[in-house]
Amino acid sequence: MGHDTNGLNLQREVGIIGAISFIGGTMIGSGIFISPQYVLSTIGSPGASFIIWSCCGLIAMLGGLCYAELGTIIPESGAEYIYILRTAGKVVAFMFVFSFIMVMRPASGTGIALSFAEYAVAPFYSGCTPPQLAVKFVAAGSILMLAIINCLNVRLATGIQVVTMAVKVVALVVIILGGIVMLFQGHTENFEDSFEGTNVGVSSIGIAFYQGLWSYDGWNTLNCLTEEVKHPEVNLPRAVLIAISLVTTLYLLVNVSYLTVMTPKELMSSSAVAVTWGNKVLGSWGWVMSVAAALSAFGSLNGTFFSGGRVCFVAAREGHMPDILSMAHVHRLTPSPALIFTTIISLVVLIPGDFQSIVNYFSFTAWFFYAIVLSGLIYLKIKKPDLPRPYKVPIVIPILVLAAAIFLVLAPIIDNPQIEYLYVALFILSGVIVYIPFIHYKLCPGVLDKLTVFLQLFLEVAPADKNL
Predict the structure, then answer these.
(1) What's the CA gap between 272 and 292, in Å, rounded?
(2) What are the φ and ψ backbone dihedral angles of 312, each rounded to 5 degrees?
(3) How far apart, in Å, are the Cα atoms of 41 and each of 28, 44, 49, 414, 443?
(4) What's the CA gap between 324 and 461, in Å, rounded?
(5) How far apart are CA 125 and CA 116, in angstroms?
(6) How far is the C-alpha of 223 from the C-alpha of 233, rounded, in Å?
(7) pLDDT tens digit sequence for 18-42
(8) Portion of the chain with pLDDT greater than 90, in percent
(9) Inter-residue contact 310 to 13 (CB < 8 Å)
(10) What is the pTM of this model?
(11) Is the four-CA dihedral 187, 192, 197, 200 of positive or negative sign?
(12) What is the DSSP letter of 45?
């Protein structure tokens, strides 16, 4: 089946509301319900933690605007992968997609699934820690459920994103209003001497940024599905501005509310900040926060799955993954083989999953590749200024975000070198070892062709064209 004979492609079904929901809904996941105590315990003081949260929002916004320009210069799905392929070349792009599919996306998805599971089972184990096995079973169930939904229907997956986005915003507004009421009642004692005990070490600042940026992760989601967005040249930058501004404002106000209700010590010792807040402010209705946080993580996991499957799909279409992963279902027009593949890897990563280390190693790898993407944008601005650009940012913005990315990659290594970061770096480089025999020299046995034909018939899929 040739690419030009069947004319199969993914449909443009994501409008501006869906676009905002994909960015905002993937960003507002489990992070804001879990990360505040990690940011606070790493940086050491409430005042410094507010600065970290504000800077994280600024970095996400500037990064999102840079990606909006890239999305209009290179109007293909695949985000980092396709941008690195078009600017830095095939080898670096393969290193990215190898790390993304094997580490970054499964780590991100698994971290969110574990958060969802912890909140979902928390009401059944009030007063004690839920068993890890139960948490992992629920996490695995949520991954499988969303994989099935995303394979069946793009509109259903988009609908889940819009509904859960609304639930998240309502939950965060409830937390904000509760905090405002407490502030008006004079509970300002936790904001006195708010910079006392700040850790100013480079490593502390770097790790605090990792934890904060984990809550903002998803600012680049829409670029993974550019080919499915209606009028991307208008809706990409618009959705980035609206969604990231909304999320940053909500995050800062929620942190004020948390610290109005809880002392820094209480906040740092809480295993689920939103639930502790709910129990203190809402009393017997505290369980509502558990449900809201679980739904929030569920929506974020849905967005992560939706976008991750697209990157895998685009990489296969460019010849960097097995052909079967570049195919779409002939009736449903969803990239189901890519979604099934990313699901299997996520379930494998879930087995040893530990939330804290997942965040640090995911962030380290992600910002390494963000730096390469931003360098590519700077290169295009200087060397190819005549490329059509329906939207563009001043060159100073990618330079600033690139500087932040370099700091985030180097900070944890310089101040507090850990052998794990070396392992992650070696893993990224190991992509070259896989690339040379299997991609460059195409040392693929004929068995793979037979397997592709079998899976194509079994899954009812066919090669898909680009939707430009």
Answers:
(1) 12
(2) -60, -45
(3) 21, 5, 9, 20, 50
(4) 8
(5) 15
(6) 11
(7) 899 989 988 887 678 777 888 898 8
(8) 33
(9) no
(10) 0.87
(11) positive
(12) S
- The torsion region of residue 463 among left (phi > 0), alpha (psi -120 to 50) and beta comes to beta
Backbone phi and psi for residue 461, each to the nearest 5 degrees, phi listed first? -125, 160
Structure tokens at 406: 């370099």
- Read off the DSSP letter of residue 224: G
Q: How far apart are CA 97 and CA 75, in angstroms?
A: 18
Q: How far apart are CA 23 and CA 298, in angstroms?
A: 14
Q: What is the pLDDT of residues 110-141, one digit of tens each?
A: 888 988 888 888 778 777 778 888 999 999 99
205, 217, 218, 222, 235 from 397: Cα distances, Å: 22, 19, 19, 19, 20
What is d(CA 181, CA 175) in angstroms, rounded to the nearest whole number? 10
Q: What DSSP assignment string belongs to 94-157?
A: HHHHHHIIIIIHHHHHHHHHHHHHHHHHGGGGTTSPPPHHHHHHHHHHHHHHHHHHHHH-HHHH
Residues 45 and 255 sit within 8 Å (Cβ to Cβ)? no
Q: Could you give phi then psi for residue 273, rounded to 5 degrees?
A: -55, -45
- The contacts found for 433-436 with CB under 8 angstroms, 24 or more apart, are 434/94, 434/98, 435/90, 435/91, 435/94, 435/95, 435/98
